[in-house]
Amino acid sequence: MSAPSHTPAHHAATRPAPRATKVAAHERVEIDMTVNGSEVTLRVPPRVHLADALREQLGLTGTHLGCEHGVCGMCTVLVDGAAARACLLFAVQCEGAEIVTVEGLGSQEDQHPLQRAFSAHHGLQCGFCTPGMLMSSYDLLAGCASVEPEDLPVEMSGVLCRCTGYRGILAAVADVAAEHPDGVPAPRNCRPRTLVGRGGPAPARAGDAVPEARPPAPVEVRLPSGAPSATVEVRTELGVPVEKAWEVLDDFHRLAACLPGAELVEVLGDDRYRGRATVALGPVKLTFDGLAHVVEREGRRMRVLAQGADTGGSTTQADIRLRAEPTEAGGTVLQADAALFLSGRIAQFGRALAGDVSRRMFEQFARAVEENARTGRAPAGPVKPTSALALLAGVIAARLRAVVRRIRRSR
Ligand code: FES
Ligand code: FES
């Protein structure tokens, strides 16, 4: 498809060469881009895709997200004049790019002909696909000599309408194509303005000093009201005496050193601790900055409230009760009951999977506690979390074993 006529210059050839710097998942990278005519500088973690950066950092929520796999086309925007799936582009790939979103196409007072036609033909039932349809049809018709109406179903098939508004949509696009055989007019709402993200400060204009766009870190753990997303009860036996095991749990530095993928960042006082933890499952890798507060210690029991937020918007809170008891053989039974509250992408794991993953991480934690108690030394460096693949394989294997057991019992 040809580049739309509005784009000043095709930037692809003049873009700065990609930076070769290696950055950690939780670090932020500075990027300059032009969005709907405004030059902006963002700081984003390298794994944040363009659609999330547009929605969360710039408040341009017109770009919708459906599948996040490049299938549904909801997130279609123009990148350097060509339609692109914003869910398949990392924001850091768009350094120097010129982006146009549906907000740049037209305004309420000055709608683009495509927007007017969608409205006239009732081409927006629930409206969820509308931004993708508009940007995709703009890309189709910009600078286009002609599009035959019979070709439209195929030409527009890159965006899926889930509520079957297709007829009106195709009629609208056909109308605009007939009215503008030499290409649709340029977007009408691209001009410098202040873009403000959801809940965060406005991103800087290019050339300004870039503030660190982070809300102040919380110092209190707040648990949501209502039922938890998942509850987990895990129990495991350690081959070390209970006093030794409890020595590890009672010292938060040693305890934190045993948590897979976690590191202690700051001791805040009053038994509160700031830390960082990485959780990986399949393609999803989340790095949480978090807070833990030991609210009760009694005998060999403790209660810990924890909360973490990932830069991509996932949050997790947990109410954890840990208990160590001696076994007759001189070992320890370590028990943890946790209520988990999940939101954002991590909630997509679902209850059962969240439970399975927590269980496997607890097993890893328990092994590290046993080792620590035996040697009397904290592990050097954070306990490596099980690889995402191994974790997933373990979860699936556990599921299969449970199914086989159920089948056997039912025979
Ligand atoms: S959300 Fe990008 S294609 Fe579906
Ligand atoms: S108008 Fe509802 S999904 Fe397309």
UniProtKB/TrEMBL annotation:
Presence of the UniProt keyword Metal-binding in the record: yes
One Gene Ontology MF term: 2 iron, 2 sulfur cluster binding
Cleavable signal peptide: none
Matching Pfam families: COXG (PF06240), Fer2 (PF00111), Fer2_2 (PF01799)
Annotated InterPro entries: 2Fe-2S-bd (IPR002888), 2Fe-2S-bd_dom_sf (IPR036884), 2Fe-2S_ferredoxin-like_sf (IPR036010), 2Fe-2S_ferredoxin-type (IPR001041), 2Fe2S_fd_BS (IPR006058), Beta-grasp_dom_sf (IPR012675), CO_DH_gsu (IPR010419), Diverse_Oxidoreductases (IPR051452)
PROSITE patterns: 2FE2S_FER_1, 2FE2S_FER_2
Name of the protein in its database record: Carbon-monoxide dehydrogenase small subunit
PANTHER family the record matches: OXIDOREDUCTASE WITH IRON-SULFUR SUBUNIT, XANTHINE DEHYDROGENASE IRON-SULFUR-BINDING SUBUNIT XDHC-RELATED
The keyword Oxidoreductase is assigned to this record: yes
Pathway in which the depicted protein is active: Alkaloid degradation; nicotine degradation
Occurrences of domain 2Fe-2S ferredoxin-type (ranges): 29-105
Coiled-coil stretches: none
Biased composition (Low complexity): 201-212
Keywords in alphabetical order: 2Fe-2S, Iron, Iron-sulfur, Metal-binding, Oxidoreductase
CDD domains to which the protein is assigned, alphabetical: fer2, SRPBCC_5
Region (Disordered): 1-22, 184-214
